[in-house]
């Protein structure tokens, strides 16, 4: 028996995960006097607190909870598909919990090198493979290959979140905010950090620069595109239409980001990601 485990960066709530046979462990969220869990706290209240000047923080799931999951499924071969190492301590916590268990030889922690849409796809496909009887090696071979066929971009709209995360200097963040620029960040291939991809004046021009970059790869029916947003539904719909026009055979899915991602990218941020099927 193979058991698939992941964290809330896959955008699965605990309840949604249970319906498909996934154990999803939520990250921790703190903002003001509110302490909660990713994909569980009320997002209207969360955004309201940000508007009042409260600064959110996020952290990896408690190691005790990860250890408890490992012990509950001690009779299974566990594959824990975590968000990218380098963007969170989630992967390291999952590995540390593994070393504390008696069944550690039956636990595989997989660094997806991504998050959100592509991570959700990796989880979904691993679950499908488990349902048809695939073993750990077969699933891991697929995960290793598939995780390398993905790219991710982030378009933030609140420079203060990037400044606090150390991705922009205070001066650059101030100038960018005043000029209302749209920075574009790209996740590195190893999933360890976000690098500068470009800066544009409008959301449409920022998206079009990504479309131009991806045009050489001929995105089509063999790919899935994820447009994930932080309370920016209308922007997300517009971006979806731009990609569908540029790549008519491409399947584009919309997702809403949880508090853990908003903590890093800020309200109204847009994540643009694809993965090969």
Describe the protein in words.
By secondary structure, this protein is of the alpha/beta class. The chain is built from eleven helices and 13 strands. The chain has helices at residues 14-20, 43-51, 63-72, 90-99, 116-131, 136-146, 159-164, 170-179, 203-215, 233-246, 259-265, and strands at residues 2-7, 23-25, 28-31, 34-37, 57-59, 77-82, 107-111, 150-155, 182-187, 194-200, 223-229, 251-256, 270-276. A six-stranded mixed β-sheet has the order 10-9-8-13-11-12, with helices on both faces. A four-stranded parallel β-sheet has the order 2-1-6-7, with helices on both faces. A three-stranded antiparallel β-sheet has the order 4-3-5, with helices on one face. Helix 10 (233-246) links the parallel strand 11 (223-229) and strand 12. Helix 5 (116-131) runs antiparallel to helix 6 (136-146). The protein is globular, with a radius of gyration of 19 Å. The two termini are 25 Å apart.
């Amino acid at each position: 028996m193979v058991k698939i485990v992941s964290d809330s960066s896959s955008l699965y709530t605990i309840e949604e995960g249970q319906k498909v046979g996934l154990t999803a462990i939520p990250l921790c969220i703190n903002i003001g006097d509110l302490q909660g869990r990713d994909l569980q706290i009320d997002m209207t209240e969360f955004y309201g607190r940000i508007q009042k000047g409260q600064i959110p923080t996020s952290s990896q799931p408690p190691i005790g909870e990860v250890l408890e999951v490992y012990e509950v499924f001690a009779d299974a071969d566990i594959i824990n598909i975590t968000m990218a190492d380098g963007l969170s301590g989630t992967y390291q916590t999952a590995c540390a919990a593994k070393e504390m268990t008696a069944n550690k030889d039956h636990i595989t922690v997989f660094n997806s090198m991504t998050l959100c849409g592509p991570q959700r796809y990796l989880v979904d496909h691993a679950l499908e493979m488990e349902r048809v009887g695939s073993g750990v090696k077969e699933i891991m071979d697929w995960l290793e290959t598939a995780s390398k066929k993905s790219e991710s971009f982030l378009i933030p709209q609140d420079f203060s979140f990037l400044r606090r995360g150390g991705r922009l200097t205070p001066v650059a963040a101030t100038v960018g905010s005043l000029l209302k620029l749209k920075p574009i960040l790209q996740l590195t291939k190893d999933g360890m950090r976000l690098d500068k991809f470009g800066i544009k004046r409008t959301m449409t021009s920022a998206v079009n620069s990504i479309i131009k970059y991806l045009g050489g790869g001929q995105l089509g029916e063999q790919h899935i595109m994820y447009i994930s947003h932080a309370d920016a539904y209308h922007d997300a719909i517009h971006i979806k239409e731009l990609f569908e026009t540029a790549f008519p055979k491409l399947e584009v899915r919309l997702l809403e980001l949880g508090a853990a991602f908003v903590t890093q990218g800020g309200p109204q941020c847009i994540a643009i990601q694809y993965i090969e099927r």
